[in-house]
Amino acid sequence: MASPDQTPMLDWRDETIPVSRRFDDPYFSLAGGLDETRHVFLAGNGLPGRFRDGFQIAELGFGTGLNLLATLLAHPGPGHLHFTSFEAFPMAAADIARALQAFPEVAGIAPGFLRQWESGETTLRFPHLTATIILGDARETLPAWPGKADAWFLDGFSPAKNPELWSAELMAAVGRHTAPGGSFATYTAAGHVRRALAEAGFTVTRKPGFGRKRHMSVGVLQPSATASRMSPG
Fold first, then answer.
1. Ramachandran class of 77: left when φ > 0, alpha when ψ lies in -120 to 50, beta otherwise
2. The pTM of the whole model exceeds 0.85
3. What's the CATH code of the domain at 149?
């Protein structure tokens, strides 16, 4: 699935938490990755309350697939969701399986995900959700994506350690690929990220973070931003 330069280099903390050597950052919160996903990405986007048939989630940073699995747990149906994730360094199924052992709640749905991922599939099918994992540098793949998200999970490694995934140019692309009334949520409250998202057309709000993180950021695309993209020129 991944070429050598795309393979993530991992260390393991407490034998269960993968840490990227490339970015010196863990893949999920040491205080509880599944709880963080629910607090930041689901609640931060007003989910699952906004789910409807055809609802589109997009994500920067697929990692272990934990956000996908949390979404599956939150959406038993009815209605079918679409989940698109952009990932430059896809993890091997065996490493994902090792990481997911920390979360007994996903044990019932993880095997179906892992079977598809191990077989090399990047379109993953579940009863009430279809996930598409787009491999490669998001700075190239996101601008080329034809979709528009109703909700964004901005979950790259720390802006201080992976600045490429938080640049003003990429945040502008996030704004262009957001549906009218669409939202974002992210664990970071870094000033330059918040400013970039505001410039991309979002109203940006700081909220209490998860665990040791004092703050996180959420936002909704302003109607004026949507209108300006639809106007001539």
1. left
2. yes
3. 3.40.50.150
